From TrEMBL:
Protein name: RasGAP protein
Coiled coil segments of this chain: 63-90
Annotated source species: Tieghemiomyces parasiticus
Recorded name of the encoding gene: gap1
InterPro entries (alphabetical): RasGAP_C (IPR000593), RasGAP_dom (IPR001936), Rho_GTPase_activation_prot (IPR008936)
Keywords: Coiled coil
Amino acid sequence: MAQRVNRIYSSNNTNMARAATMAAAQGLPLDPSGRGSYLPSNEGRRSKRYSVNALYSMVAEQDVEVEDDLSKAQRRLRELKNKISVQSKKNFLLEKDVRFLDARIALLIQNRMALEDMKEINSALDDTVSEDYVFPEERRTQLYGNLFFLLQSEPKHIAALTRLVTLSEIDTLLQTVMFTIFGNQYESREEHLLLTMFQLVLSAQFESATESGSLLRANTPVSRMMTTYTRRGPGQAYLKKVISHEINAVLTQGDLNLEINPLKVYDDLRQDLEKQGLDPDETYPRGITMEAAMQHPQVQAIVQPRAIQLMDIADRFLFVIFDQIDQVPYGIRWICKQIRSLTKRRYPNWQEFNISSLIGGFFFLRFLNPSIVTPQAYMLVEQSPTKNPRRTLTLVAKLLQNLANKATFSKEPYMMLLNPFLERNHERINKFFSDLCEVGDFYESLEMDQYMALTKKDLSLNITLNEMYNTHALLVQHMDVLAPSKDAHLRICLDELGPPPAALPRSENHTLELPLFSRWEAPINVDLTALSGESSVTQNDILFMETKALFIQLIRSMAHFPGMNLDFVRHGHHSGESGYIIGQAGRLDLDGIADAAATSNDPVLVRKGIKVREMLRELTEAGVVDRRDRYQLMLEELGQELVHLGNIRDTVYAEIGSLEAVYKTIGDHNQYMHSQLESYKAYLQNVRSQATTGDSAGAGNVALQQSSTHKARQQVKKPAPPPSFKFTHLLLEKEGVIAESNVPDARKANIYFQIISPHPGSFVILLFFKGRESPILEMNLTLDDLLEKQQDNVQLLDLEYVQLNVGRLLNLLNRNFLRR
């Protein structure tokens, strides 16, 4: 039997490994169908082989030798998951570039950057080179492959490193950890190892915490890691599926104003009178306090029904969040479970609501609410929300956050109108957080994952040279903490690699496929009886299961044969199940299938047909199956397997549809980030041109040497007036610079703006009404302010009478001032 077991396993090594991993990871009851729903006759014999049989069932799902609808769909799904993982990393890099350039350009505008610095940041915009790169030294490739296998398979090293790096270093490390070392977002082994790393990091965070109030809320490497994790493919899929509909429902009511801040409502009442040509000061005097506005009867009459509407909208958000708890990605739920467990251990006297508050700090503060407040940044909406819906979403997010935090609105007295929402949902949110944490652990399946990984020959990472070198440098920098013992595997790897190479320019930062392997473990022959935990699995049991697996292969491979009439079909209008059926009677003819394969023109099928015919004969002679009842025992299990495969196909199709939407969303975001970088390129090109011509207005510290004669002429020459431009209200509205306007249509033709730049990067915006000498509004701002707003996803700049689109205002300023 041992020889047969080893032969079976070695013939389909990768599939069996995957099957074992899937069975363990999903916590499946190990029955013949692999799904716990089928217990046919002869239970005594079958009860001895549940575990091993489940592995064969898993193999049938992932059979690489078959080319049918299911296998094509599974291949498409794997490709889609890989594309999402790769695109997520590209988006992370683009976002990092944009953040970096935002900060650097602000310095540039403030005249604090030299020309050489400009050349350096411009190089950061160059595209990376092709990925067809082979590391020149084979031994060095092996050393790095060993190091990164160690980092991936033993997450304790990265967990320790994240506690040692600074905030300025964390983004580079996050890039490598989240999108390279554990970059395959849908592969169970990598996902489980990444979550193990999170568990270690969180554990250390709780142990070192001195103030419970700052746990998981401060801007630390740990909180950055958790936020980045939620932005991966599964998190994006959840947001798209669960809350995007409610967000868009708010956006469709663009005219619905649910502002409940009494001062803003009071000011709206004043503006309404102004639009009617009346003097508002008589009815609504200027400069009243918040308390006075809250007591104003007209304000109360407006605010109270708005508060009810707001709570209704927040209730709808809560309903879909509670109702679709099963859609929350496993990893996010598992992190919530760790927060709960660690909190109970660290603060044993805490009440349940205190623990729920910490879970809510992660689930709502880091995951859900950012997407509600800025849905355009998460590509959940096609256009940025206008003023009223944007304010409604902000207030809804406040409601949800305060509910999660178990807080009242004592700091914002006008929000106390919404306290009934908190009171009636208090118990519901506690139950939600409790249910959210009810997920199984994966430690046993991770052992299987790790064990099976050693039997694979194709473990690799798609990694850049700088990712390798930067990680190498960080490890060497903290080696004494990470690996104090001379015998530690990590120290041995680092000692053999020697000093880390310097970071390369972007143009030389090649991407390569780095093969991973472990020098300290070796693959072992798998004994299926050991895997199953059953000592009584007989040779006939193994033969039965192997025969069944081979018939599954043949049935799937021969679905297109003339006369077979074999296909995935729906049968049982009420059962909702789908599977394979053959012939009008729906009966499988096993002898006929074997003969058809053995006499086909396909040599692979011929070999399998002859083999399965012989195996069926052996089973008949052993008394396991009976030809007189048309092998009823085998038919029962085959029927269950085929129905199961049909259900798997339906599930795969549904998942493909969901992930295609996610991939499109990620792709759209990628295009948006590229457009931002293009605008930066144009801006930097302008600055370099100014530097070359000696224009100090945008060239930072760059200055051309001037002759003494020229200097003398400059001294007597009158200073030039600061650059200034005028724009009509109608023009700015047409170009989209004015996103919203409170100016009545009849007055727009008489409104114009003057923008003056007294100093490089500094602007004064003046709003004039024709016929009046003095402006009716004046605002000072710098380019830094606008860049910071853009970086923080603030879309509009409020000028009281109009709201300006930040991005388009930036373009207007660049176009008219930077070229001078």
